[in-house]
Specification:
seven-stranded mixed sheet, single chain, 370 residues
Length: 370
């Protein structure tokens, strides 16, 4: 046993459970091919322009990246109609979430976290010796009334995943605006908008919120719609004073040169974005109609995934899918026993998921009747 003692906050942290990698599953189960629908990744890949820009710029790979992300900053500033100093960049949302906690959360201060939601909020809170205050969802949606009720003198950060992962629910505009107005100005509201591009109905421009409230920061990612998950690049939008404090604890070279270039060209590829969004809408519509036919409950999603109630043991469902060369997420790890979370794949992959569900459901019914 090591004699070096870790920080007290580290003692309380359970290792983060990421989705299984393709390689680990292939090796464990002896599979050659597998469809990964567990990590909410983009199954259509990324823009074809990414390979082109990396080939074109490969002579720059031996140099350190631009720590300011200057070109990307200018483009996003124009897209979101904000000044460049309203933006902060990071090595994906994981790093940005950690940086916010490191910059703002003192020992003993509370961070309010809807539950279930993205598990990294709790992890970074504990890293800083903060106190997670878990607020159960109400009908699979974030309960803003309960959050407001439980705000205390020690509350410092409120983490809001909108749309929420793993449920896919999104706060209505009026509800979100009213909630933020009621949060005291000294409490930081973090709106993690990793899935905002997939919202079913037309949604309002949430950048308005950071112009009206200096205690709000938005987080965006290139991992979902743009399919750049392995590049690790995301950004935050907020008041310059908030951004300045986060930059003080940020590693200056955390966003690589390839990531910056890939993000720049991805922003320009409207055809690819339309392709992804069209596939997502058609795929979710397929799930809704087929799950209704199978008599399986589900939650309408505003993300690139869907939460489905099988009513069966999650490990048994996982095994059934693995036997059909598909990885899905057992939602019991989110506290949702009898549910699974399935990432939206290609249309053909989604049809295969439905066939597996139908087969599993029929077999389970036969066993119960025998």
């Amino acid at each position: 046993m090591s004699m070096v003692k870790e920080r007290s906050g580290v003692q309380k942290i359970a290792p983060y459970q990421a989705a299984r990698s393709l390689e680990s599953v292939k090796r464990e189960f002896g599979l050659d091919q597998i469809i990964k629908l567990a990590g909410n990744e983009n199954r259509l890949g990324c823009s074809s322009r990414v390979a082109g820009i990396l080939e074109e710029q490969k002579s720059q790979f031996s140099f350190y990246p631009d720590s300011n992300c200057t070109v990307l900053r200018e483009r996003l500033s124009s897209i979101h109609n904000v000044e460049p100093d309203h933006l902060v960049f990071g090595n994906g949302s994981f790093e940005l979430i950690a940086l916010i906690a490191h910059a703002y959360l003192e020992t003993g201060e509370e961070a309010v976290i809807p539950d279930p939601s993205f598990g990294w909020y709790r992890n970074v809170t504990l890293q800083m010796n903060g106190k997670p205050v878990m607020i159960p969802l109400k009908e699979f949606a974030i309960d803003t009334d309960e959050i407001l009720r439980l705000i205390s003198g020690q509350t410092k950060i409120i983490w809001i995943c909108n749309p929420n992962n793993p449920t896919g629910t999104v706060l209505k505009e009026e509800q979100l605006r009213d909630f933020i107005k009621k949060v005291p100005d000294h409490i930081l509201v973090v709106l993690d908008e990793a899935y905002i591009d997939f919202v079913e109905e037309p949604y309002f421009d949430t950048t308005e919120l950071i112009k009206q409230h200096k205690n709000v920061i938005l987080l965006r990612t290139f991992s979902k719609l743009y399919g750049l998950a392995s590049f690790r690049i995301g950004y935050g939008i907020g008041d310059p004073e908030l951004i300045e404090k986060i930059n003080k604890v940020r590693s200056p070279l955390s966003v690589s040169f390839p990531a910056q270039k890939a993000a720049e060209v991805s922003l320009e590829d409207e055809d690819f974005k339309r392709l992804v969004l069209d596939n997502n809408r058609k795929s979710l519509d397929l799930y809704y109609s087929e799950l209704k036919r199978l008599g399986l409950d589900y939650v309408r999603s505003n993300g690139n995934f869907i939460l489905i109630r099988t009513g069966a043991d999650g490990e048994a469902v996982e095994k059934a899918f693995l036997q059909n060369e598909i990885i899905i997420r057992n939602a019991s790890e989110f506290g949702l026993d009898g549910w699974i979370r399935v990432s939206v794949g290609t249309f053909e992959e989604n049809k295969k998921v439905i066939r597996v569900l139908e087969s599993f459901t029929q077999e389970r019914k036969r066993q119960e009747e025998s």
